[in-house]
Design a protein that fits this description.
48% of the residues lie in helices and 16% in strands. By secondary structure, it is of the alpha+beta class. The chain folds into three domains: 117 residues, Acyl-CoA dehydrogenase/oxidase, N-terminal domain (Butyryl-Coa Dehydrogenase, subunit A, domain 1); 107 residues, Beta Barrel (Butyryl-CoA Dehydrogenase, subunit A, domain 2), CATH 2.40.110.10; 146 residues, Up-down Bundle (Butyryl-CoA Dehydrogenase, subunit A, domain 3), CATH 1.20.140.10. Strands 1-4-5-8 form a four-stranded mixed β-sheet. A four-stranded antiparallel β-sheet has the order 2-3-7-6, with no helix packed on it. Strands 9-10 form a two-stranded antiparallel sheet. Helix 1 packs parallel to helix 4 and helix 7 runs parallel beside helix 9. It is globular and about 80 Å long. It binds flavin-adenine dinucleotide. The site of flavin-adenine dinucleotide has 22 residues, from strand 1, strand 3, strand 7 and helix 11. Flavin-adenine dinucleotide binds next to strand 1, strand 3, strand 7 and helix 11.
């Protein structure tokens, strides 16, 4: 991949940040159970240091609009950034988290952008996305959370589940249905600030990969008129924009994850001797190395292709679905083969492999399960739309 000078500079800076700051914290992350309060394995001091160092390095607001003092970097550059971040199991988001940024930048009013987007970009606010419900996850058009217009604004009622960051986020973008229409009809986005009366966190749910999600209810939750994000009933498309943004990021992160797993596999295979021969000289191991290397290369080309199209303003929903399936399954297989190569050592919780494998596993579910994306891809192709 040939990158321009700016991309190389940013990528190398992120690479150093990952090597000098994130990877040294991995031993701590491996030992630490994630905290039920903040969903993080890092102490407040460790987290603050990562914020301070990454800010000092100029790594905040990388793809934020220039009007908010962001660098407005192209997606091709951002893909290189996410690939580097994917290499470490120390989870850290360079402020701001891109998907909600994209959604708010696309449909937010000037007032909402000043109130929420600017401080979000400046790393002063955090956010969550609130779509999934007990009866609608992979099929978000099935949501039943209701939003009713009142004289003063809106009232929300419904139940949401699997919401990352719900307890910690300063605000959530919540999807609800206005009116009695079916499927995408009526789906509307709202900004819900933390502490709003009627938002009740029911429980924290520990997930694979040491992540936490939350179940919550909206019980006669009153929102002001200004909480409406975008147009009434027009929330599905901006929500998709957000999901597509995350899927491209996940594709790039998976390349970093798989590359790390492959490095661990190769290092072990070069020195481990069984039955008088190195594992590196066994065909079974060589084929894993060859296949994973090939799939990493293919995923990188897919990410680059989709990123270039985004930078040209093209619709990449189809590419994002293909990438989401291909890259998450590739990263999962890379971790699995690396674990197999390391034998019992690969089964320990003492290596980053275990975390990478778990992370790749959950990635096959969130932002849409593989099967749902395969269905969407096939329908587009069979329907002659691609
Ligand atoms: C770690 C994690 C974090 C998450 N964070 C958030 C968040 O912050 N906000 C949020 O709103 N949601 C979040 N989610 C929810 C996530 O988006 C949903 O779990 C996901 O979309 C799948 O929905 P579901 O769990 O209801 O599964 P379902 O939709 O019930 O699907 C279950 C399984 O059925 C199969 N299946 C479903 N549909 C089809 C089909 N058409 N064809 C073939 N097979 C099919 C698939 O194998 C699928 O895995 C998170 C999930 C996880 C795991």
């Amino acid at each position: 991949m040939i990158f321009d000078e700016q991309t190389v500079l940013i990528r190398d800076t992120v690479r150093k940040f990952v090597e000098r700051e994130l990877i040294p914290l991995e031993l701590h992350v491996l030992k630490q159970e994630v905290s039920a309060d903040d969903g993080s394995a890092l102490s407040p001091e460790q987290f603050q240091r990562l914020r301070d160092v990454s800010k000092e390095l100029g790594l905040w607001g990388l793809d934020a609009p220039e009007e908010f003092d962001g660098l407005n970097l192209p997606q091709v550059t951002m893909a290189a950034v996410f690939e580097e971040l994917g290499r470490s199991i120390t989870h850290f988001v360079l402020p701001p988290d891109t998907p909600n940024l994209r959604m708010m930048a696309a449909v937010g009013t000037p007032e909402q952008k000043e109130k929420y987007l600017r401080p979000y970009i400046e790393g002063r606010l955090t956010s969550a996305i609130c779509i999934s419900e007990p009866g609608a996850g992979g099929d978000p058009a099935g949501i039943t959370t209701k939003a009713l217009r009142t004289a003063d604004g809106w009232v929300l009622n419904g139940r949401k589940i699997w919401i990352t960051n719900a307890r910690q986020a300063d605000f959530m973008i919540a999807m609800a249905r206005v009116g009695d229409g079916g499927r995408q009809e009526g789906i509307t986005a709202f900004i819900v600030e933390r502490g709003t009366a009627g938002v009740n966190i029911q429980r924290a749910i520990p997930m694979v990969a040491d992540t936490l999600t939350y179940e919550l209810t909206f019980d006669d939750c009153l929102l002001p008129e200004g909480a409406l994000l975008g147009q009434v009933g027009q929330g599905y498309a901006p929500m998709q924009l957000r999901l597509v943004t995350r899927r491209l990021e996940m594709g790039a992160r998976c390349i970093g994850m798989a590359s790390r797993a492959l490095e661990i596999l190769c290092e072990h295979a070069r020195q481990r001797v069984t039955f008088g021969e190195r594992l590196a000289d066994r065909q079974a191991v060589q084929w894993w190395v060859a296949d994973i290397s090939t799939r990493i290369h293919a995923a990188r080309l897919m990410v680059h292709d989709a990123a270039e199209k985004v930078d040209r303003g093209e619709d990449v929903r189809h590419e994002a679905s293909m990438l989401k399936v291909f890259a998450t399954e590739m990263a999962y297989d890379a971790c699995d083969h690396a674990m197999q190569t390391l034998g019992a050592m690969g089964m320990t919780k003492e290596l980053p492999l275990y975390h990478l494998w778990h992370r790749a596993r959950i990635m096959r579910i969130y932002e849409g399960p593989s099967e749902v994306h395969r269905q969407t891809i096939a329908r587009r192709v069979l329907g002659g739309r691609r």
